[in-house]
User: Fold this.
Amino acid sequence: MSFPVEKRQGFLVVMLAGEVDLSRSPEARKVIMKALKKMHSVMVDMSRVEYIDSSGVASLVEGFQYARSNNLEFALAGVSEAAMNVLRLARLDQVFPIYASLEARLEAGA
Amino acid sequence: MPGVWILDPAPRMQNQSLMEDAVTATGIRPSDLPAPPKGAIRIVQACSRDGVDSGDLAAIVTNDPILTAELLRVANSAYFGLVSQVRSVPRAVAILGNRALRNLMLCISMRDALRAESIPGFDIEAYWEDALRRAVSARSLAAVAALDADECFTVGLLQDFGLLVMLYLNPQQVGHWQALARATPEARRELELELFHTSHDQVGLMLATNWGLPSDLGAAMGYHHEGPAEDTPQQGLSLRQVAACADWMAAVYRCDDKREAIQQTRTLLMTNFAVAAEQCDALLQSVSESLAEAATAMGMRVGEQIPFEGVLREANLRLAEENLSYQELTWRLEQTLAERNQIAGELQRELQLAREVQKSLLPASMLLPGISGLNLSARAVSGDFYDYYQLTDGRVAFCLADVSGKGMHAALLMAKTASLFRCLGKGIQEPGKLLAMLNREIFETSVRGMFVTMLAGVLDPSSGRVTLSSAGHLPALHLGGGALIAEYPAQAPPLGVNPDSLFPSDTFELRGGCLYLYTDGLLEAYVGDRRLEHDGLMRLLLQHAHLPLGKRAQAIAAAARNSNGGVEDDLTLVIIEDCGSHVRQ
Assistant:
């Protein structure tokens, strides 16, 4: 099953959920990269991610690197505790722009 | 509409509602239909009247000189052979009887109804040869169906006349004639629906209704594929069955799939008329034998006929070919499986080689005092690695790393990182600086967001001092005296993520304790039914702290192995011991 994507106020929001592991990270990567090629600003809603492994994190890193080299916006929002622990341990919380929630970024405006 | 019909249109609606249904089904208006052959229709109408006088019939026929000549020729032919030769119409009418006269007149009229030039580019003779074969087939069934032979012949000749009408109305579809001719009856009807959005039986029924043909003849024309609705009278059932069988009998000689046509003919003849296979084959044989004679009688031209034995041979040959194809398919499948096994074997050998190369990247066991490492891979190749070596000043450089993802691409990045560490680490002895250099190198060639988490450090065995830097790796654990002394979590992100990352270092002394570096394969391993996680790992390490260094890593890993003796994820562990502490004390 693919991860849903929604358009919200000028953002494409990719909604990752469940276990983003070796079996599902190729799909996550595909959805994220497709969104970045379609829209200038992409947010990844991670509020429903229960587990993420290094392959799942790699799909976020790829999105981040692509956005950076193409002057696009790529951010994570509402990161679940399980996912946040992984990002924090790897100090990736210093790398990704992270917002408390989707709304927090939307309210901030352009 | 081209004026190809002999007579003017004179549509006569026998059944208005039936006609409306037919218009709905075919999409053809009655006015689009070819005009009926007037002379024949007059005979048909006259014959259906009770107490019709043979003199009147003879008068109607005589009124049309072409019809008269044809009637005498056909009636005197060997195929329809009368007992004695007849030279006058009244005599022919008297000998033939009303019904036979009607049928003969219909056959003659329909044959001439559409001329070759009315459907440009169409081989009308080929159509009539096919129709004649159905007529002969139907006639051959008269005895088993207990029906009049000429009546059967007429049904066979007219049952697919709708196809000719459809081609006449849609001459742009003439190019599909060969495909129509080679198809089995059911497939042909499907193709007709595709090409004309109606079928010959629907058009045939409309035509029969419009022209006022006898109802049983109309029923045979209209319902030899599908029966009428259940609430309508089941007219001329035997005649319809004869028509359905004749369709398949003719197909035996015409269609590509002769085997199916023979099989279907045998089934139909058995079901409808209890005709056994042998008798069915004899009837089929009679079709090819009688065709030329019937053609002569009807004044039609037919090509050279293949005898039924020839058709049977062709069908059997095809069956043999299919069997051969099946054998060939089996052979190819076996070949493919053999190739697959060969490739799998080669891949396995390649993986084994890759595994050996990877192992060679790891340091030999207990190469140096005070440091020990272990790597268990969940797959053939691993994305984890560790390394240590002595620097020129006697200190020991060490690292432990984990590449994101699994499989060959992770193993290749692992090999690259391990080589860079060994190569650059001898020159850049400050762990933070070394990681910054590795980070830039890996970032430059990074693909698909792959990254490496790494702990890199330098141990001074004489002082027990360690300088440690972490790129996004799990915290190193400093244990001693049966407790945790300190944890050293990452202060920078993994290698390959951000080229500008800075990698701070921690410097501390082991003070008789041990430093444990590990990958998530150990942290997430199950011991019993529970994942180790942070606290479980701590307990496990402390439980084994008393073991000599050479045995400790193995014992810890053994506790984390699954019931099959393997590991769920790549598992790597490095233990650095303060081996000089007793000298310092």
